[in-house]
Design brief:
By secondary structure, this protein is mainly β. The protein is built from 1 helix and 8 strands, in the order αββββββββ.
Length: about 140
Amino acid sequence: MNLTREQTQTITRSSYNCSSPSSDLNYPSFIALFNSDARGLTFNRTFHRTVTNVANGAATYRVKLEKPENTRVRISPKTLVFRKKYEKQSYSLNVRYRGDIDAFPTFGSLTWVEENGTHIFRSPIVVSAGVDNFG
């Protein structure tokens, strides 16, 4: 795309540096790719995310998981407890999957559900064969 550093920083809202690329940009979605040359191998992909409380005060969110087919997904922690509005919390998601050249992409989601049900945030999870773009 030939974007300048400033354009990239505007899009990602961070000091992301394209000279050391990463597929983990703290976006709400997760995609775990494997190189088709590595079919049959087992992969582990860990993502780290930071989220901000939008409730009008203290709030507790519990995770609901729909895992992609033929994967093992772990989330830590499974509960996010915020004491005030705009407070930030971090979590990690680990996907373990086997690269299979004949497999189609599989889909799932991670959803954070506020205890009182007011706020619900869903993030898609995709596991797919792809090119080795990220090292």
